[in-house]
Amino acid sequence: MDIAFLSANEIARRIRSKEFSCREILEHYLERIDRFNPELNAIVVDLREEGLETADRLDELVQKGEFLGPLHGVPMTVKESYNVAGTPTTFGKPELKDNKTDSDADSVRKLRAAGVNIFGKTNVPLDLADFQSYNDIYGTTNNPYSLDRIPGGSSGGSAAALAAGLTGLETGSDIGGSIRNPAHFCGVFGHKPTFDLLWRKGHSPVPENVGFGDISVIGPLARSAQDLDTSIRVVAGPDEIMSRGYKLDLPEWKGRSLSELRVGVWKTSDMAPVTKETQARVEQVAEALREEGASINMEARPNIDVNHSHEVYGRLLQPTMSSRMPEEQYERLKKQVDQLDPDDQSIGAQTMRAQVSSFKDFASANELRHRIRWEWHEFFKQYDVLLTPTMPTPAFKHDHGKFGERRILVDNDERSYFEGVFWAGLSGVAYLPSTVIPTGLGTEGLPIGVQIIGPEYSDLLTIGIASDLEQKGFRFEEPQAFAS
Q: In terms of domains, do 143 and 226 share one?
């Protein structure tokens, strides 16, 4: 195996044992970036000079026997939407192309304190609002397993860079599957944390923002589940105000066994059907757990109406997303909504109305969401985790057409492009943690991931289960075109 595909924890271990230096591993990634990134376009902000200087400082510490933390010397890129001092944070918006920040996001600061060496930023879609990753500033990112396919979004550059062996670790964000669908499409591990477990200050094009929108979280992507665990431990915890009275105390997986698990399995839905091959991968993960002695229930569901849950998710998601709009664009949208036929109940019309909904409407949906949370809470008294698909299909071909005109094929059945957000919203609306694991390549040579959903604050448990499954073969596979 090329050392570029090692896990972040393994890179850190080898640096500690002086098998290679911090500079040597970074230079290896930089050589691969020069060779492979032009066709992939995953890393779009280059900080190599800063990275090389940092590597030398980290190497000086190694020679003294001093280490900043568990990720000392690990070369890392971060999603473009994170503030990194001296770099643009644009969310892919052309009007923000010169929006350079002078400070690090809180999470970036914590990662640096743990020893990572941040040497670049990775691509995103416009306003972080697509399953694809392209924009007019940086262009289009391709999937390492097939360049004519999407890498996912909005953390598409993150997942593509990891899968291609261009970086040691990544961190993304997720409001509608933006960590999970790229992990699925690119065959890496990804974790959407419990809401607000990881503080989001600095994940914004407006550095001084300290209040953040509903549902959205930040979280890690990696080539190994253990790297997810390390990243969560580094970044998680209350902000400075909350830490006066709150202390992080997450349940640990260590000491537990797969044999004791009670597992629900939800392999498809009429609202968002998935391919038979995808369903088979969900079943494959369930069977692997069954072989370890876990109790498996293929019919287990929380006591919620899925149509209602998805509607509530949309009512909360849409105004949260539209709050990012420039004022002029938002005013135009309000005028369009005023002109809608009251009898128009199409998906497009409902989406537009939700985007400009009143606080009363939002508060009503929020109350319904908390009722849904409590139903999930009752469900997880009977079950430890729920296995689901991540997306309806493996990575599909690039499609830069209008949102409303896009379609996907699910076993030759033409479906709505945005149906895939159902599987993200299922846990997102209820603040639940979700870990995506790779299950190998499908018949077209494309990765397929499966989602492990757990109760709130069970983040280390779902990641721990993913780690045990990784040892049983559900692991990252290098894309052949980038393996040499």
A: yes
